[in-house]
Amino acid sequence: MTKADTIFKEYIRKIMEEGVWSEQARPKYKDGRTANSKYITGAFMEFNLAKGEFPITTLRPIAIKSAIKEMLWIYQDQSNRLDVLEEKYNVHYWNDWEVGDSRTIGQRYGAVVKKHDITNKILKQLEANPWNRRNIISLWDYDAFEETEGLLPCAFQTMFDVRRVEGEIYLDATLTQRSNDMLVAHHINAMQYVALQMMIAKHFGWKVGKFFYFINNLHIYDNQFEQAEELLRREPSDCQPHLVLNVPDGTNFFDIKPEDFELVDYDPVKPQLKFDLAI
Question: Cα(72)–Cα(110) distance, rounded to whole angstroms?
């Protein structure tokens, strides 16, 4: 069993056994019902990517390619436009969060990245002084939230640090997330930011180091309890999945494409489970 599978099962059990019920919940199911959930607070996990530990479960298939495309939409294209996500990447699941008829998700994610020139700034900061303890990405922008409606960013802060070990520089990353749907989005969000970490490391010719993941509210929705029990019953695959970025060291961050990523030794348990999303 991989470290990711062990952690996944542990947190499913903890939420189901120790979690409390949400109150005054914002999300709705497509039929209009309130999407209540059981949740815990203060979840933390650590993966040593350099030793082959990656935050992806083998207990069900995870759509990694779409997840990486979404991350590129945010940090390369610096866009909030749904037509860019659809036409360039053939990713459609953000349509449920369209703001009115704007064909955008509001001033969120990529729009905030563009507004503050975040991608270029973090690359310049890391180039100037990778040991600076201020290499931080933040998508939490109160002015943008007041400007338009839209889903507030779930994964909203990433911090980067480096370590020199036996002459090699390793890039570590810490992702902070305010809210996470454990069964649906957990591994998608984690692997997106591992991919971002790998891209930045490649840009500078560094090694990827450790990935730290803090989630303030980790939850399972009330229409997912059967799927949760099924995941607990499943025996994990004996594969050891790991993500590879097949570009030379020093490749410019903005030149990296979705097809440059390869998920190796990934044979998840099937069949896939179905989930009705909370919007």
Answer: 9
Kindly state the DSSP code that residue 276 receives in the 8-state scheme.
P
For 195, phi then psi, to 5°, come to -60, -40
The catalytic residue among 136, 152, 154, 277 is 154
Q: Is 154 a known active-site residue? A: yes
CA 48 centroid distance within chain: 17
What is the four-CA torsion angle of 71, 59, 268, 49, rounded to 10 degrees?
Answer: 50
Give the E-state strand segments of the chain in sequence order: 20-21, 37-48, 136-138, 155-165, 168-181, 207-221, 242-245, 261-264
Structure confidence at residue 25 (pLDDT) = 94
User: Which pair of tokens denotes residue 141?
Assistant: 């922008």
**Average pLDDT value for residue range 144-169:** 98
Q: Helix 186-204 and helix 118-128: axis angle, to 10°?
A: 50
Model pLDDT for residues 55-103, shown as the tens digit of each residue: 999 999 999 999 999 999 999 999 999 999 999 999 999 999 999 999 9
Question: Which of 30, 7, 1, 59 is closest to 218 using CA atoms?
Answer: 7
Q: Per-residue pLDDT averaged across 108-121, rounded?
A: 98
Q: What are phi and psi of 76, to 5 degrees?
A: -95, -55
**Contacts (Cβ under 8 Å, ≥6 apart) of 119:** 75, 76, 78, 113, 253
Mean pLDDT of the chain: 98
Q: What tens digit of pLDDT does each residue of 191-245 get?
A: 999 999 999 999 999 999 999 999 999 999 999 999 999 999 999 999 999 999 9
Domains of the chain: 3-64+130-143+150-264 (3.30.572.10)
Q: How many residues does the chain have?
A: 279
Listed residue (169, 168, 191, 218) closest to 63, CA to CA: 191
